[in-house]
Specification:
Layout lengths: L5 E7 L2 E7 L4 E6 L4 E4 L6 E4 L10 E4 L56 E11 L2 E9 L4 E9 L5 E2 L16 E5 L12 E9 L11 E3 L51 E11 L3 E8 L5 E8 L2 E6 L6 E3 L5 E2 L4 E11 L2
Antiparallel strand pairs: 1-2, 2-3, 3-4, 4-5, 5-6, 7-8, 8-11, 9-10, 9-12, 12-13, 14-17, 14-18, 14-20, 15-16, 15-19
């Protein structure tokens, strides 16, 4: 059981907010415009409260949890709930009287090690639709204390949900860009014409940042199939019998020059256009490769179940030919790069 004391921390979105700190974890209770949420929750799931009151003591539940269950018991202290006013009127702040025997509780100062900075999401592009899975590329900026990224998406910019990468344990790393897949088989909702995305950073100190800005994506609608035009049946044309047949002269057929296929040459560097993968179960994988300078790098991509060709041309990965692709993900059985143009 975890006990945390919260102190009033001003207003956010016109509602009061509270700050809690137990020596290792910073928690913020804020109203985000739709529901109360507890930012910085370092465990599985997200505490939410859809009760639209100024004292959110009841109605807390854990959303998007996979393994953890929690019961919230929040009680009010002796201080009254502040009533936020639309326009703050400056007034002199009276010096509070000190009750004998009771020392005021100081507001803890927050050090940099207790902060998890919010990342920026600056572009989301629709990549392709494959087997009813929608694949997107996320371009973002992470901070120095990043240990992983998680994301949420929405079909109406009101109700948000997660799909696959829903906790810091299942994060997709800090290197931008990253490719994600929204799959119906994983109980992920498929949106209609509009998709909205936002991200959250997991930090090395165990905290989670606030959500980033929201970006809307409009995947292209499928092109309608063309209706074949009706070709008129030509009228019968009388055949003409030639009076003399002409025997064509024999022309020497030039020999066909076979263009040899490009074989990978060790020591050279080429862009990876796609990856042939074999996985026992579809999952997000962090793939390790050797760049042209001989340094190990990594990128994240979703690998479906079975043997598939995954397009990664938009990631602009320059790899040293002759070095392997590896992954620490257990379900990944084999990885083979498919090369394109030379790079350096």
């Amino acid at each position: 059981m975890i006990n945390v004391s919260f102190l009033y921390n001003g207003t956010i979105n016109g509602y009061p907010s509270w700050l809690g700190f137990d020596g290792a974890t910073q928690l913020n209770i804020v109203w985000n415009g739709t529901y109360w949420e507890m930012l910085g929750w370092p465990y599985d799931g997200e505490p939410r409260n859809y009760t639209n009151t100024l004292d959110p003591t009841t109605g807390w539940e854990l959303f998007n949890n996979t393994t953890l269950t929690a019961t919230f018991n929040i009680t009010l202290g002796v201080c009254p709930i502040p009533s936020p006013s639309p326009t703050a009127t400056p007034s002199k702040t009276p010096t509070p009287s000190v009750t004998p025997g009771i020392s005021p509780t100081p507001t803890p100062s927050i050090t940099p090690s207790q902060v998890c900075n919010t990342s920026s999401l600056f572009e989301v592009t629709f990549s392709q639709r494959k087997n009813n899975n929608y694949i997107f590329n996320l371009f973002f900026t992470s901070n120095s204390n990043c240990s992983g990224m998680i994301y949420e998406y929405s079909c109406d910019n009101i109700t948000w949900e997660t799909c696959i990468y829903n906790s810091c344990v299942n994060s997709f790393g800090c290197q931008s860009p990253v490719q994600i897949s929204v799959e119906p088989l994983s109980d992920c909702t498929i949106c209609g014409t509009s998709w909205y995305f936002r991200i959250k950073q997991c930090c090395t100190n165990g905290l989670q940042s606030n959500y980033s800005n929201v970006i809307q994506v409009l995947p292209p609608s499928p092109s309608p199939s063309r209706t074949p035009s009706v070709t008129r049946t030509p009228s019968v044309t009388p055949s003409i019998t030639p009076t003399k047949s002409i025997t064509p002269s024999i022309t020497a057929t030039p020999s066909v020059t076979v263009t040899p296929s490009i074989s990978p040459t060790p020591g050279l560097c080429r862009y990876i256009t796609s990856i042939e993968s074999s996985t026992s179960i579809g999952s997000f994988a962090k793939i390790i490769y050797t760049n042209c300078a001989g340094v190990l790098k990594q990128f994240g991509v979703y690998l479906p179940t079975g043997t598939n060709i995954i397009d990664v041309s938009t990631l602009n990965i320059c790899m040293r030919v002759g070095t392997p692709l590896t992954s620490e993900t257990v379900s990944v059985l084999s990885l083979q790069p498919i090369f394109g143009a030379y790079c350096s």
